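User: Hey, quick favor. My workstation is busy. Could you predict this chain's structure for me?
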Amino acid sequence: MNLATGPYGKITPMAPVSLIVVGAGQRGAGYARWVRRHPDRATVVAVAEPSQVRRARLATEHGIAPENTAADWQDLAARGQIADAVLICTQDRMHAEPAEAFAALGYHILLEKPMAPDEAGCQRIVAAVEKAGVMLAVGHVMRYTPYTRAVKQIADSGQLGDVMSVQHLEPVGFWHQAHSYVRGNWRRSDLATTMLMAKSCHDLDWLQYVLGRAPLRVSSFGSLTHFTAANRPPGAADRCVACSVEPDCPYSATRLYRGLLDRGEHGWPLSVVVDDFSPQALEEALDNGPYGRCVYACDNDAVDHQVVTLEYPGATTATFTMTAFTQAGHRRTQVFGTRAELTGDGETIRVYDFLTGAERTVTPAAAGGMNAEEGHAGGDAGLMDAFTAAVATGNRELISSGPRESLASHLAVFAAERARLNGTVETIPPYAGKLSRTGRVAAQPATTCTRQVWPWHGVDTSTSRPALVSRTV
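Assistant: No problem, here it is.
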């Protein structure tokens, strides 16, 4: 048996951590790919996914027997605990119920972000995992990138002096906004959650982690301005395939998705549009599916630009900007300290020292692009590394995105959205616990984690229930 290694040190040799995947869409399948690359660390033993194509694909990739597959997560939960941990990667509004159920059964949980679309759901999840004494890792993958580790090490080292303010930009990208937040699953808050929570809870959580403190007050401004019927060009059709102005539209669905298919790029985002990567399947999707619609004729309400201003303990302030109107790319950040300024573009970090006038450049190990297909710049792999190591050893300190610290950043997002809607400055509700300089909540109740290896059993699929929906970006 191999000795597992990673950013968290050596792991005592033992049987690989056994996992259930609930939701085999882009996120669940992405995490499962890490398992295939690290068979000495983990194994997927069962999957619940309503799509027969995705369920069969993941089962084939991981050698899962038919009796260990199900369309509904409740069929797997009904069997009791059959694995060490579960990866819950369902749609945003389908997180709380499975998280509560699997926690009560004793599963450690990796939960895709956001925890839930409302504060009550987030609180329910935290209460459930703390009552059960199981570990929870929320999918705040930006915490786990080599780039973030380098930024945080610099901020914590004192090189910057006291951090006074931060400017942070998320360049969503014009085509990504059209794909996910105008035509796609996150286009409406009543179907998923707000734009700030769906896309940018990563960023408010990242600021909290780097600064090592949760914000106290927040204000926000933004709206859905461009992707509306009022901006529809004269003569535009409801669908790009039949539109006379499509050649001049930067948001053309036919240009984006046909181009991906022609180039053989079958991952995200094309894999969200079709399961069969054929011209016939794509044309059917463009003719009749949601991803072929004109961006000015959709039922979307997600904002296309938003600014958030935050105040932290110690009079530190931060501004965060999310905008659709960019070339897609890495986040960009400036951290202003009393002794130095840090500038980062997601790949390279520059630190300018006020005393010496010297500029130092730090280039963390390259880890891919900041999108789902490329693993969020190493964040997906970092999260899986930390989570499986924590489960294998019982050391929950390996997880930086645990229940209380994740709840704190979610509360900041909810407060920011209230501020945007009401035109107010919102005081962020307090949370139980205090963030340490590592960005974790200190003084959590101690629990004992005992890892077991669970036998496999047959799956009873006779019960019919409403199907889950896997999280597909």
